[in-house]
Amino acid sequence: MALDTLIEARGVAKTYQSKDGPVESLKPLDFSIREGEFVSVVGPSGCGKSTLLKMVAGLLPISAGTLTLAGKPITGPQKDVGIVFQSAVLLAWRSIEDNILLQAEIRRLPKAAARERARALMQMAGLAGFENKYPWQLSGGMQQRASICRALLHDPSVLLMDEPFGALDAMTREKMNLELQRIWSASKKTVLLITHSIPEAIFLSDRVIVMSERPGSIAAIYDIDLPRPRPLDVMGTERFAAYARTLRAHFFAQGQLDAH
Question: Where are the transmembrane segments (predicted)?
């Protein structure tokens, strides 16, 4: 394992047992993610992207191969991981600050230090002044910022994101892409993002993993060589368009495109 490799998969596969027999969800996968790297996974619906993310989180067991985090096998829920889902999953009766502090309560972290960190994260995420608001008083984008803060509260080395902006409108989504790039740059976390959006994957990532139809396998991995920080204007460049054409070609070749 390379010194800076944080997540490594070798022959990782997933098969579910059903009443009709075994169902193959993921064919053997090989990939590694370096410390501080931003990696996205794109692929058709049902190809096992979310399954892969849950296995990295330790929420689903692997069926074959080896999957390691910082050189140690992932055998159950990982303490050094934060997860952001498509829905912000905030509790309506708790303030934004208390929603973020839920992570501290579950992990029994010291209260005063956790509150201080929560406020620093809210400042970083542009939520200063909204500490005492309730989720229903915030836009979808701001709710997702709170969800990202909650995932970062215990200072994990890895942030796993499963379609975090999929429910947002196009303009809010672009704004959140900029916001996530800024948060990633400031927090120095390793990010694994699952997305259906090819432009989002290109804009945010150092590398993009393209998956095939179910049972999912890795069709290709592309390095995204665009200077950082990336302004939204980069999406109008020929280089960006060339990456988009390359990625889209995989889905057109399969006769379907589940990306926008």
Answer: none
DSSP H helical ranges for 15-163: 49-57, 96-107, 111-124, 140-152
Place of tokens 């984008």: 141
Run means of pLDDT, 10 residues per run, the chain, 260 residues: 81 92 93 96 91 94 95 90 89 94 85 90 89 93 91 91 90 90 90 95 97 92 96 96 95 54
- Residue 94: which of 86, 103, 85, 107 has the closest Cα? 103
| CA dihedral for 112, 113, 114, 116, sign (positive or negative) | positive
- Assess contact for 83 and 57: CB atoms under 8 A: yes
Domains defined along the chain, listed by start: 36-62+69-80+158-260 (3.40.50.300), 91-155 (no CATH)
